[in-house]
Design goal:
By secondary structure, the chain is an alpha+beta fold. 34% of the residues lie in helices and 31% in strands. The chain has two domains: 37 residues; 116 residues, no CATH class. It is built from four helices and six strands, in the order αβααβββββα. A hairpin with a 2-residue loop joins strand 5 and strand 6. The longest helix has 36 residues. It is elongated.
């Protein structure tokens, strides 16, 4: 009887080892499956900037010429010194089944003088957590004509939703 019990215990240990090994292999398979599904999905909204966009807009161009070169602006504003066209882009990244997260936002701004011709351009984004113009390589001046607009545009970067919704 004792021999039979020892044999039964050994069989149980082997069965337990097999079950644990099967669970380990199954878990590894599931993790590998998840690893394949975790490839990031990148979605872009709005105006898609090209390196040549800034070169298309020249000082003195009319608003119509800018529209022909870049298309319709995302939004516009009127300031004391003239009108401004804003071309806004947003990039979101989604990992597997997680909520998409906005990882980049750019605002390409075309400033017109009171005659309606291009005065200057700017390409705003975030650098070290601050709004930064990648053309002039500077941060916008405090109290500037569109400081409020720009701070609102970048305030929600990385939070739920985006300038384009969702």
């Amino acid at each position: 009887m004792a021999f039979h019990m020892l044999k039964l215990q050994a069989a149980n240990r082997r069965m337990t080892t097999l079950v644990v090994a099967a669970m380990f292999v199954g878990s590894a398979g599931l993790l590998a499956g998840c690893g394949g599904a975790s490839i990031a999905k990148v979605t872009k909204h709005g105006h898609q900037f090209r390196a040549t966009d800034a070169q298309l807009v020249q000082r003195g161009m009319s608003q119509e010429d800018v529209r022909l070169s870049l298309g319709t602006p995302t939004t516009t504003s009127r300031t004391a010194t003239g009108e401004t066209f804003y071309y806004i882009s947003s990039t979101k990244k989604q990992m597997a089944f997680l909520e998409p997260k906005e990882i980049d936002r750019r605002v390409f701004s075309v400033y017109f003088n009171d005659l309606g011709t291009v005065d200057r351009i700017a390409n705003y984004g975030l650098k070290d957590g601050r709004v930064f113009d990648f053309i002039s390589r500077s941060t916008p001046a405090a109290g500037g004509s569109d400081e409020g607009f720009l701070s609102q545009m970048f305030k929600s970067l990385g939070k739920r939703g985006s300038v384009f919704g969702g």
